[in-house]
Specification:
Layout (H helix, E strand, L loop, with lengths): L1 H16 L3 H10 L13 H8 L1 H25 L6 H15 L12 H11 L1 H18 L2 H18 L8 H17 L1 H9 L13
Helix pairs in contact: 1-4, 1-5, 2-3, 2-4, 3-4, 4-5, 4-6, 5-6, 5-9, 6-7, 6-9, 7-8, 8-9
Length: 208
């Protein structure tokens, strides 16, 4: 029964994460497929460049919220305090965003949904990592760099603060998996960062 319930939670998380708000909003406003414009990424940064700041903020907020909801479904249905249910529900939401079943498995890079998931599970580590990420974006204007720093530093802070905030080991494992996934999804951005050809926010070809 527990395994069946876990599978249901994972499925709900995935289906929820598969809702692409950048795709839906772009279709609503401009009648276009966001994945065929700009960087081709179904995320908030590409929405900013294609549609403007208002729609981009909406996409960012909604993508974060769906990550939060997925985790809370896991928390509410979890039979114990191991953290397995909310962690896997959150991971499923991120995977859904990246490979959405509704849109031919072509989604975004999962940054905003990851923020929602990770911040719900390990709030203070995510907060500290997020502050550093935001500062890096402000100073360098590289959204991808900020995303990578957030992914990298969150599990580091979670491990260092594990005892202080009573963080379940499963959440740390999840944050490491999510970091690895984020780096893989941003592999082309990393190449451009290393060669100095990555686009800055406000210019063409940024990615989120």
């Amino acid at each position: 029964m527990t395994i069946l319930l876990l599978l249901v939670v994972i499925l709900i998380g995935y289906l929820l994460g598969s809702i692409s708000f950048s795709y839906l909003i772009a279709k609503k406003i401009k009648k276009v497929d966001i994945r065929q414009h700009g960087s081709g990424n179904a995320g908030a940064t590409n929405t900013l460049r294609v549609l403007g700041i208002g729609p981009a903020i909406s996409v960012l907020a909604l993508d974060i919220v769906k990550g939060i909801i997925a985790v809370w479904i896991g928390i509410l249905l979890a039979p114990d305090q191991s953290g397995v249910f909310p962690a896997l529900a959150g991971l499923a939401a991120i995977l859904g965003h990246n490979w959405p079943v509704y849109y031919g498995f072509r989604g975004g890079k999962g940054v905003a949904t990851t923020i929602g998931v990770i911040a719900t599970l390990v709030f203070f580590p995510a907060l500290f990592a997020g502050i550093i990420a935001i500062i890096s974006i402000v100073l360098t204007r590289y959204v991808s760099l900020g995303s990578l720093l957030f992914a990298l530093l969150t599990p580091a802070f979670a491990y260092l603060l594990m005892e202080t905030y009573q963080i379940p080991q499963m959440y740390i494992i999840l944050s490491i998996l999510v970091a690895a996934l984020s780096f893989w999804r941003h592999r082309t951005n990393i190449q451009r960062l290393l060669t100095g050809t990555e686009s800055k926010i406000g210019k063409k070809k940024e990615a989120s």
